[in-house]
Specification:
The complex is a heterodimer of chains A (105) and B (115). Chain A has 105 residues and is α/β, with parallel strands linked by helices. Chain A is built from four helices and five strands. In chain A, strand 1, helix 1 (18-31) and strand 2 (35-40) form a beta-alpha-beta unit. Chain A is globular. Chain B is built from four helices and five strands, in the order βαβαβαβαβ. The longest helix of chain B is centred in the first third of the chain and has 12 residues, at 18-29. The chains are: A alpha/beta (105), B alpha/beta (115). Chains A and B meet through helix 4 of A and helix 1 and strand 5 of B.
Chain lengths: 105, 115
């Protein structure tokens, strides 16, 4: 990968194998010195409850989620400590900022 | 590689709200700096078919398409997918492209988000 910043869009719920793939991908990216940002939307917002992903936050992964989708699913900000409540506009900023975007839809 | 962002919709809009969500996301993303293209391919072409009426109450995707059209973002339909499904009339005046043209569009994109 040419750049140093990786963006990940996660829209699938925790039942999907995507959760595990994203977690392992993040770990590998961190080990190789990459900066990682995850944006969760649709049912992906439910991953806010998954320790395999939230455990990455102290290691440096930035996670944000669509406020609208989280609100639809009754996920409160206090239920997801460390996860930023964001908008699609913020997501557009993430896309601009990262060198590579990988989507799990 | 350009700055263009392509949102590719592959699924039928009649059995899921994901197309609606994808278009809602597009409206939000349109506030960013990157040029945006919505691509309707495979069963996704029903989203812009003139006979494709929203069936899930509260999830009329046309309001997002209207907004995106007013903002003059590019709507693209895959000709092969439309032909295979007998879709000949469209809402919101999308540009009908060949697979070769679409391949060039995707090749030039900074990111492709597939729904």
């Amino acid at each position: 990968m040419a750049g140093n910043k990786l963006g990940i869009l996660l829209t699938t719920s925790p039942e999907s194998e995507d959760r595990h793939t994203v977690a392992k991908l993040c770990e590998a990216a961190l080990e190789s010195g990459k900066e990682v940002q995850i944006f969760m939307m649709c049912d992906g917002a439910f991953n806010a409850y998954c320790e395999s992903l939230t455990a990455l936050i102290p290691k440096g992964v930035k996670i944000s989620q669509c406020h609208h989708n989280a609100d639809e699913r009754k996920i409160k900000e206090e239920d997801a400590p460390g996860i930023a409540s964001a908008s699609q506009y913020i997501f557009s900023g993430i896309i601009s900022e990262v060198d590579k975007l990988i989507t799990f839809c | 590689m350009g700055d263009n962002l392509v949102i590719m919709m592959r699924r039928s809009p009649f059995s899921t709200v994901r197309n609606y969500e994808a278009l809602r996301s597009c409206v939000g993303l349109s506030m960013g700096d990157a040029p945006l293209t919505m691509l309707f391919i495979e069963d996704g072409v029903y989203t812009v078919a003139s006979k494709g009426k929203p069936v899930l109450e509260g999830f009329d995707w046309n309001k997002h398409l209207e907004m995106l059209k007013e903002l003059e973002f590019q709507l693209v339909v895959d000709k092969q997918s439309a032909d295979e499904r007998g879709v000949t009339e469209f809402n919101w005046e999308p540009e009908v492209m060949s697979r070769e043209q679409i391949a060039a569009l995707l090749k030039d994109a900074k990111a492709v988000i597939t729904y």
